[in-house]
Structures are given as structure tokens and as C-alpha cells.
Amino acid sequence: MAVVAATDQAVSDAAKHLRAGRLVAFPTETVYGLGADATNGAAVAAIFAAKGRPRFNPLIAHVADVAAVERHAVMDAMAHRLAAAFWPGPLTLVLRRSASSAISDLVTAGLDTVAMRVPSHAVARELLRRAGVPVAAPSANRSGHVSPTLAAHVAADLGADVAMILDGGATQVGLESTVAAVEQDRVTLLRPGAITAEQIDAVIGQRTARAFEGGAQPLSPGQLERHYAPRARLRLDASSAEPGEGLLAFGPVPHATSGPVLNLSARGDLIEAAANLFAHLRALDATGLARIAVMPIPAHGLGCAINDRLGRAAKGR
Ligand code: TXA
Ligand code: MG
């Protein structure tokens, strides 16, 4: 495995690997991605093989700018409005795929839509510019495991399968992008994420449909799986840890706590909690304890995406 600091030279080498059909892990503002040339079917197939990801779960195509998005997908006025507000940044738009797009059917899992994202991370942007192709990139973890927010997390999960891991330090947001489908100027949120539903509502001037709430049929195949899971079991909404449990805290830690504790945010800040979530889950898992008690997280703003990830991580296997 080759973890390499994301110097100018390393980013050029990584772009060469991508153009040659090899896999490269790279930092984005959300989590690390496992990238391949989205127009190269064999390279994209290698992503599914490395992650152990089911082929029916489509990937996000990452590009450097809106002009590149429009080479592969149809953007209506609403898509442009969201793009102007949030790109570059942690929003993924599911759009109608254009007939002329060279993106592989493996990326879209045969759907007539394609998920597009223009990330804001400087390393990701430079890599996309130099690669000159759309880059398919799921989170760089084994399928179903906790998403990576450090290069070391990628190395632990997928080190043997990638040509290179570009190390850009800890990712800032720590939660995946928000996924929103846009069709005929209507927006449907498919996955809660780094851009809050409230932020999107504010831009479009009304309450956006939330397809992930209230047992609605999931429209995003990835939302079907048990996901984001450590080896330990999670016990949610815990007021304290029982003997033999680790504690994933939020806010003040209960006095009687004896086992290992990691606090998402001692001051109760959801942005800080999002940035710490996946690394803390991995670290508590590494203690070898069978169970992790998780204190309640408020269900607004980024708390919505945090609770989504915790809920799916807690599902029985
Ligand atoms: O922040 C992120 O989005 C990270 C970084 C690397 O960009 N990527 C990421 O990819 O989280 P992944 O593969 O772990 O999640 C992509 C989600 C899945 O839930 C997938 O089902 C959904 O996007 N998706 C992709 N294409 C879709 C489509 N055409 N229609 C509906 N959902 C789609
Ligand atoms: Mg993922």
C-alpha cells in the first residue's frame, strides 16, 4: 500500500494512475473516496470488487466544474439553482443522464439517472482537473463498514487494492454528501448528509421532500443496506454506558462512566460531532469491546445525517 502526502507531484501521479485505469483513494471535504475513471468499465468494476459492493448500488461521478456535469447529465433551472448555491461542495445531484455521456453503465447500475458531484476539497479538485475524466468514487471503505475520514482508515480497509492513497489529512466535514434527485424542477432528498435539509429548503423556498423519512420507499439503492457499521454492536439513545460497554458521548459525560469514552462534542456542537463520528466509531471498535452505547444526538441540522448513519450502523446483521 502506498500512502503518499498529497503534494503537487503526488496529485499528478494519481491523475496518471486514474487515466491508466487504476484505483486511487483521495480526500474530499466529506470522506475519502475510492476513485476510478468513470468512463472505463474495467476500472469501475475494480471498485465494486475492492469494496465488495453489490453491483446494483450506483456510484457518484465526480467532476471539476458545472460545465463537466453538463457533458454527462441534464441540468434544469432547479439543478442550476442548487449548483450555484452549493457547488463546489458536499451536495450530490441525481440527474437525468445525457445520451452522449461516456460514463459506464456500471457507474449508474443501468439507471437512466446519474449522480454527479463537484467537490470543494483542493486536492480533489486538482486531481479531477488533471485526470480530465469523470471519476467514480464511493467512500473508500469495505462495503457496509465505517466511512474513512483519514488516509489510515483507507489503508486499513483497502490498502492492498489501490495504486495509491493520497493523504490530505482529516476530512473537514466527516459525513458524506447530501444526495438530492432533481427532476422537472422538483427536488427530493435521497440521503441526508453534509448539506442540511434546512439549508436546501432555504435555497428553494419550500420544504423539500425527504424520501428517507417515515418509512418512505428508498429511492437511493445505497439506502437499503445496513451500513456504516463497526464490528461492535451499537446501543442508541443511551443515557450512560453499562459495564463492558464503550461510550460514544455527546455533551457532558455522565459521572459514573467507567469504560472507554470518546466524546463527539463535549460542548454539544453538531458540526464538531459530524467531523468526529466515523473516527470515534473506529477507535471505540478498536478497543475490542462488544458493545458501544451512544448518547442521543439532537435531530436537527447535521444531527439528521448523524442519526441516519448511527441508525443504519445499529441494524442487526
Ligand atoms: O461524500 C460523498 O458522497 C462520498 C465522497 C467520496 O464523494 N461518496 C459517497 O459515495 O458517499 P457512496 O457510493 O458511498 O454513496 C453514494 C450514494 C449511494 O447511496 C447510492 O445508492 C446513491 O448515492 N446513488 C448513486 N447514484 C444514484 C442514482 N442514479 N440514483 C439514486 N441514488 C444514487
Ligand atoms: Mg459509502
Give a brief description.
The chain has 317 residues and is of the alpha/beta class.
Structure description:
The protein is globular. 31% of the residues lie in helices and 20% in strands. It is built from ten helices and 16 strands. The model has no long low-confidence stretch (mean pLDDT 94). The protein folds into two domains: 3-210, DHBP synthase, CATH 3.90.870; 233-314, Rossmann fold. Strand 2 and strand 3 form a beta hairpin. Threonylcarbamoyladenylate (TXA) binds next to strand 6, strand 7 and strand 11.
Q: At CATH's second level, what is the architecture of the largest domain?
A: Alpha-Beta Complex
Radius of gyration computed on alpha carbons = 19 Å
Outline: globular
Strand content: 15-25%
Strand segment tally: 16
Instruction: Give me the strand/helix succession.
Output: EHEEHEHEHEHEHEHEEEHEEEEHEH
Average pLDDT over all residues: 94
Major beta sheet summary: 12 strands, mixed
Q: State the helicity in percent bands.
A: 25-40%
- Please report the number of helical segments: 10
CATH superfamily of the largest domain: DHBP synthase
What hetero molecules are in the model? threonylcarbamoyladenylate, magnesium ion
Query: Unreliable runs, pLDDT <50, ≥5 residues?
Result: none
Q: Cα distance, first to last residue?
A: 30 Å
Structural class computed from helices and strand pairing: alpha/beta
What is the CATH class of the largest domain?
Alpha Beta
